[in-house]
Design brief:
alpha/beta, globular, single chain, seven-stranded mixed β-sheet, 3 helices
Length: 155
Amino acid sequence: LSIRIGNEALAEGEFSNLENFEALEILIISCGAVTEVTKDALKTISVPPKLKKLDLWCIPFEDMPNWLKPGVLQYLEKLYITGGELKSLKNQGEQTWKVKILRLKYLKNLKINEQELQTMFPEVEYLEVKCNKEIDRDEYDLDITRNKRQHEKQL
C-alpha cells in the first residue's frame, strides 16, 4: 500500500485504522506539502501488526513518532527513511529493532554514528546511511554502507 500525502484536506484520525489491514506487509508513506494538519494526521497512524517493510519519504518529524518504534513494529525487517526532518532515531527506550535492512538517506538533520546504529539495530545485515555533509565529521558518520553477508563471505 502506498500513501501520498500532499496539500489536500485530511480528516482527523484518517490513518488511525491502518492497523485493521492485518495482512498488509509493505507500507510506503510519502509527504509532499506539509502543514500542521498533515503532521497531526501523521501522528495518529496505527501501523498494521504484521508489517515487514516500511518506506517513509519526507516525514516532517524531528523525532521518531510513537508508532515508529520496535515494540509497535515487531515484525519489521526493512526500514527505509528518505528525506525529511528527522534529527534522531531515539524514541524506543530499551527495546532494539529486529530490522535486517536499514536505509537512511538524505536526512539533512540526522546526527548518528555507526555505533549508535549498531546498538539500536543489532540484527541489521545491510546498512546504508547518507547524511548531511555539513554536520560535525568528528562526532558523526556521514556515509555508511555495510553489508554483513558480503563481509562474512570475505572472511
